[in-house]
Write a structure and sequence with these properties.
single chain; Four Helix Bundle (Hemerythrin (Met), subunit A); 7-stranded mixed beta sheet
Length: 320
């Protein structure tokens, strides 16, 4: 299931706002459409945002726009996921035509996710029950997925796994998207309220946690809000906590605590499923991401292998 395609010199995206009820496509005729799609979460997930932004650069170039202005505007659309700026800079600095570079990134993303899936499946035991948070599946990438890519591979290896998705309030990416993806492949899946994750770990009903990431540094990760609570529960109840992320999500220059955490609109919290669930006039705090410190992470699954907690600093030092 590919999240996007380049067709007739336009970028065509699955409109993830409409899932799981309707499979509808959103066409980007210009780079401003791509910015809208990223801001409004037509497309979401760090790898998918990155590749979409690359095609946004192509659209800007095809229209004869100033590429530096296009790059600046695309980068500002969502600040936390590093793949966005990584992809835009790669187009700017490439010796290839923008479309050729974007298509190369599109293909690389699929190969990268397949490799993450193979590497991550090595830590999955037969009959494991795996908790995942938010959606780090095919819908968060070009295809296949990172955290859900690991789960897919383990399922295809006949490991008889089961999946638990938390709902991931306020926008319900776990409920709407991850459950939907698992159902498409007949992978056994159950949905829980976000607040139930700790209890299930306490009662030994979860064997592993695997989530994605929007930014990885040598002192932790930034990921969808709620990741920290899951990580703290996993640490308390000795459940291995893994992050699946491509190397394009790694930030080698900064501390994770320097990450700009996106604050989204109050309406996402006040309303759910079109219904108002809070009193009129309620003040809202709505951060889109939180930070999981490195000491809560068992390992990071990448396309090059698994980096375990005690090797984080060494790995980042060698990459610089």
């Amino acid at each position: 299931m590919k999240t996007m395609k380049w067709k007739d010199n336009k970028l065509v995206l699955i409109d993830q706002r409409k899932l799981p009820d309707d499979l509808i496509f959103f066409t980007c005729d210009n780079y401003e459409d791509v910015i809208f799609a990223i801001k409004e979460m037509v497309v979401r997930g760090a790898p998918a945002i990155g590749v979409a932004a690359a095609f946004g650069m192509v659209l800007g170039n095809n229209a004869g726009e100033d590429m530096n202005i296009v790059a600046k505007e695309l980068k500002s659309s969502r600040p936390t996921a590093i793949n966005l700026s990584w992809a835009v800079d790669r187009i700017l600095n490439s010796n290839k035509p923008p479309l050729d570079e974007a298509i190369a990134m599109y293909k690389e993303d699929i190969d990268t996710n397949l490799a993450i899936g193979r590497n991550g499946a090595e830590i999955i035991e037969k009959n494991d029950t795996i908790l995942t948070h938010c959606n780090a599946g095919a819908l968060a990438c070009v295809d296949y997925g990172t955290a859900l890519g690991v789960i897919r591979t383990a399922h295809h290896q006949n490991k008889n796994i089961k999946v638990i998705c938390d709902e991931t309030r306020p926008l319900g990416q776990g409920a709407r998207l991850s459950v939907w993806e698992m159902q498409q492949e007949n992978i056994p899946v159950k949905l829980i309220p976000d607040v139930a994750a700790g209890y299930l770990m306490q009662t030994l009903k979860i064997n592993k946690v695997i989530i994605g990431a929007d930014r990885v540094c040598n002192d932790g990760i930034a990921n969808k809000i709620g990741s920290l609570m899951v990580a703290l529960s996993a640490k308390r109840f000795h459940v291995p906590f893994y992050v699946a992320a491509p190397l394009s999500t790694f930030d080698l220059k900064n501390s994770i605590y320097d990450t700009e955490i996106e604050e989204r609109t109050p309406e996402e919290v006040i309303y759910y499923g079109g219904c108002r669930i809070a009193p009129i006039g309620t003040e809202i705090i709505n951060p889109a991401f939180d930070i999981v410190p490195d000491d809560l992470i068992t390992g990071i699954i990448t396309e090059k292998g698994i980096i375990h907690f005690d090797k984080f600093k060494e790995f980042f030092l060698n990459m610089k």
